[in-house]
Amino acid sequence: MSETVLKTVDLTRNFGALNAVDSVSLEFLSGQIHAIIGPNGAGKTTFINLLSGDLPVSAGRIRFKEKDITDFTCDQVSQAGIGRSYQKTNIFPQFTCFENCWTGAQSREASSMHFFRPARRLTAVKERTERALELCKLTHCRDTVANAMSYGEQRQLEIGMMLATEPELLLLDEPLAGMGIDESLQVVELLRELALDHTLILIEHDMDAVFSIAERLTVMENGRVLKTGTVEEVRASKAVQEAYLGDGHEADQGE
What we know:
By secondary structure, the protein is an alpha/beta fold.
């Protein structure tokens, strides 16, 4: 049996009178790909922002491996072992692929203020960087400047930067957004491989991809959980069909 790696209890985020995330209680199991889907404005990205520390919590709790991380900042969440990617590519365009991953790897050091020794001597940082490049399948782009890479490669690089922090849990916000078919297939295969050693929480509007890789689904609507279960359970739910999936129609894109 898989263990619960992350748990939310009545997690809530208010923007004035709007409950963007409204008393959401969920458990995410170790080693699973758990996708969160829902129509525009359902609260998916806000929920991920709460988990990553990008937004403060209005009410409720977040526990990661039995540790309460509700009030953690972004860097504290990262140090705890949770990585995050964003809807829009978040890289350093003038840095090489290696240098981008280095920034992620160096954030794992107890202190990044190494005034009295050259960065090249940081053997552990270099090893984490090389592992990240290999995991995200970009070793061939090691010395390529990021803004010279294809869009799909830049999205892979963002995942590589996250992997360089050596996270146990990956929060992925629409990793396939804006990709063509071939690029999407490459990233889907990458996510499958990463799931062998990581837990993935995934927001994605590409339903074909979601249904092909997710082991568990949560459907959100108006900030609340409408349904959680296996792919088969969610697809069979009449409430989900009416609210989101429709009668075979494609889901709305975006958040």
